[in-house]
Write a structure and sequence with these properties.
This protein is mainly α. It has four helices and no strands. It is globular.
Length: 95
């Protein structure tokens, strides 16, 4: 691996979920974001990550069908990143 992150990696399910999880944990206790439900914050972060990675990898001139799927894909990315974090917390508690 020669880079920490790339737009191509962020455009994948694994990349988007990893970055969403990390940013959610980093931002959830900061300022006004601390009043927001964590799952809602996670969805907004996933939506943002998918929007910018789609724009960066394919440009804004992609068909509308690509853009229409982003909110649905953000649900999948958000819930998987939330689930992965909860699994880590559960496993950590058992040691």
């Amino acid at each position: 691996m020669t880079e920490f992150l790339s737009w191509d990696f962020l455009a994948t399910f694994v990349g988007a979920a990893a970055v969403t999880s990390l940013l959610t944990q980093f931002l959830k206790n900061i300022g006004a974001l601390s009043k927001m439900p964590t799952q809602g914050l996670s969805y907004l972060i996933a939506l943002f990550v998918l929007l910018i990675s789609t724009a960066a990898t394919g440009g804004f001139l992609q068909p509308w069908t690509v853009w229409a799927l982003i909110p649905f894909n953000a649900v999948l990315v958000s819930t998987s990143s939330n689930g992965a974090y909860q699994a880590i917390v559960r496993t950590k508690g058992k040691s």
